Amino acid sequence: MAHVILTNVRPWGAAPVDIVLSGAEILSVVPTGTAGGEGARLDGGGLLALPGFINAHAHLDKSWWGQPWVSYGGEATTQGRISHERAERDGLGIPSASSTTAVLREFLRHGTTAVRSHVDVDLGVGLRGIEVVREAVAGFGGAIEVEIVAFPQDGVMRRPGVLDLLDKAAEAGATAIGGLDPASIDRDPVAQLDGLFGIAERRGVGLDIHLHDGGELGAFQIELIAQRTLSLGLRGKVTVSHGFALGELPADRQQRVLEACEEAGVSWATVAPVRTAPLPWRGMRDRGVGIGLGTDGIRDLWSPYGDGDILRVALNFARLHGLRTDEELAYAVELASTRAAGFVHRDAHDIVAGARADIVLLDAENVQDALVRSPRRQLVVAGGQVVVQDGELRV
């Protein structure tokens, strides 16, 4: 197999190296000028090199990206957004392979090479959203990898038949199944969690539960999730998405919830939204509670915002949590890359031999400079394929 050699780049701002790629894998990383053998050579020009970004929480099936502008409507509550989406999505052709493809192109443009996407599964759309996302992903020839979470956006127990659809999605290859506010949406947290954990245990899939409920109600559900995770031996396979309650709790209560999550190996996905309480990220980091960053929806019926740049989400995380030092700023970028490996079932995700050949080049002095400026991606290699060159998308 012919090699590709990416010369004169600075991984994480360190000394210049050459990176030898073999197919979709990094074969070796050597001091610049020392990579031998034949193969196409790409001059990195001394640019900063980072691993491809990982989007740990997306909704690829729901966007109207690439379509005419859609004005915001409906009530600004979780139930209001659900109802508005159900009423309007068919008229906008959601889900569609073309809109999903458009969003994936923007992800690649910004250097995201792996995605964990929730995809709606309900009585109206069935499993069609999953089919649409898989069709769109297949069109990229392996450049971008997407793991699917079958997501019950309209509730579980209050919609008889949804559990069966989630079970079918898991049987058909979804990496995980989702849940949604077991207390405030289904108003029966025990029943929802029993149903979801039953599928996860039977099918060997993970769980990723949207939890918007705040304060003590949210904390109660987090503890229920942690308890079931432990009792069923699903440690490391369960994620809480959003989990706003954790940032709202008093310090002593917060610590008890963190202890439960640490013991159960429950991870966290956040989109670092403005006006929310900061997460106790230091305690989470020190306890090994994984944090992944995501874009959430991109121009969908929940919000008109988003451009697919996970580095901007990392910047939002840094600003929301008051990160200032060089170490802290670098940590925010790690959350968008190396530290998110587990969310897409990778043992390693970095610029090292044996890792997938996902590399992003930016014209930045160092990692911190890249974070605060979010410059355009000069070159993006995804699965060994050059998908962005000189800032221009090639797929």
UniProtKB/TrEMBL annotation:
Highest rank taxon of the organism: Bacteria
Family matches, as Pfam families: Amidohydro_3
UniProt domain Amidohydrolase: residue ranges: 100-388
Descriptive protein name: Amidohydrolase
Organism expressing this protein natively: Streptomyces sanglieri
Lineage: Bacteria, Bacillati, Actinomycetota, Actinomycetes, Kitasatosporales
